[in-house]
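Apologies for my clumsy wording, but are you able to produce some protein sequence, whichever is easiest, and the tokens describing how it folds?
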Amino acid sequence: MSQNSDYAWVTAVQAQTFQNLLGPVIAQALAGAPIEVAAGVRSCGAASRSAEGVALAPSALKTIQTDYKGFTEAAAAHVVAGAGQVKVAALATLVSNAGAIMVSAPERVTEALGRVIAAGTVREAKREVRECFAEIRSQHQHMFVTNVAEAVKASAAAVGFAQAEVTRAEDGQVRVVTTNPRGQNLIAEIGSGREVDIRAELLGFTDGSCAAVMKAFNDEMASRGIKAASLEVRPTHGLALTPFAKTLSKTRRKGSRRVFADQPSSELAVPETITIKR
């Protein structure tokens, strides 16, 4: 009997240490900003709301726009009307969200923030803010998916699938293919549309141990801070669900040859599935 575990979506990832958090980048930008801009950010009461080490799902960053509107109103009370208000609102917004945002190329964000600070008119400042926010969202999504993939890889290794290969397709999808010493596989495909989703399967189990292995994998994922809105477990009746798993299954139908160490016949091993879907 195989299983399917459906997560509504991945809402957060926790880790002891994240690389390239936005905090140091925004701190550097503020240190080089004009005195009135830095003072305006402090006057708006901007402070990071998220503890470092908890990365929010890319979809959760829609709060940036709400924060930006609020800080635009707050900046009006502290900064002379004009481009300065736009700059203060943008920087205050990023300060407030810095603990939850990761960047894959800090130097590009530093350059984008520099263009925001250097903008001479309101129109220029608003354009640079839009481009800066878009760059930060894109980089955060890339890093979020990368951290999810690392959690999958580490969780799989903890339950015996130490050999791993991680690939990223042009559309942004990440595939983690892991193998244990018996030739069995745990395969995960991580998509990043509006929500980050994971579809993972176990291939090669015919001895009834698949449920215990999948539970252990789930527990390892939880211990690495993978948070989802909900979890539903149900049987999959042995059907391969992910595209790569289906392809791999076809290549393993080899007549009466034994493919896996615990496989007594030509029956394809029964897969298990975890799905984190939109």
Q: What stands out?
A: The chain has eight helices and ten strands.
